[in-house]
Specification:
about 170 residues; 8 helices
């Protein structure tokens, strides 16, 4: 029962911070709300006793990625941020809702076509050990994740370099 209460609190914090992150007009507040979302996700990992993933979430995402965002924000010209006024146009809201519905319909079709719901309903209730998770994350096999992780790190490095090049006066 206590796990359910903690999960509900974390879910409310994650959803509230995510909504505030995308609706705020101030970019530093958006980065702060994003940090709360990432800490909440780490809390869910700790709740599931995945301490390694929780620590990785805090150190890599909550620490590293949020710092990258804040440095990128600091590279933006102050006058550009002060003159930024966001106005919600009706057509943009309609297009956003339409794209959201198309994306949701696509996810539902993929789930139904591949019978993911039946597969997950018939799975035995077993815990995945940390050795299996670690081997999956660090293996270079067919189902390994080390190559996508390296591509993402190179992409983030390119984004940082691009931000520095754009911020130069010359």
């Amino acid at each position: 029962m206590a796990n359910l209460i903690v999960f509900a609190i974390l879910a409310v914090v994650i959803l509230g911070s995510a909504i505030m992150c995308v609706t705020t007009k101030r970019i530093m507040r958006a980065a702060t709300y994003l940090l709360f979302v990432l800490f909440g996700i780490a809390g869910i990992y700790f709740l599931l006793d995945y301490t390694f993933l929780g620590a990785a979430q805090i150190s890599v995402y909550a620490g590293g990625v949020t710092m990258v965002y804040i440095f990128a924000i600091q590279l933006v010209n102050k006058r550009t941020l002060q003159g930024l006024v966001e106005r919600m146009k009706g057509s943009r809201v309609i297009y956003g809702v339409l794209l959201t519905l198309i994306g949701f319909a696509t996810v539902v079709v993929v789930f139904l076509k591949n019978q993911f719901i039946d597969i997950f309903a018939n799975m035995p209730d077993q815990e995945v050990s940390m050795n299996v998770v670690g081997n999956s994350l660090l293996s270079a096999d067919r189902n390994g994740y080390v190559l996508p992780f390296e591509f993402i790190s190179v992409f983030l490095l390119a984004c940082i370099i691009g931000g520095i090049v754009i911020s130069r006066k010359e």
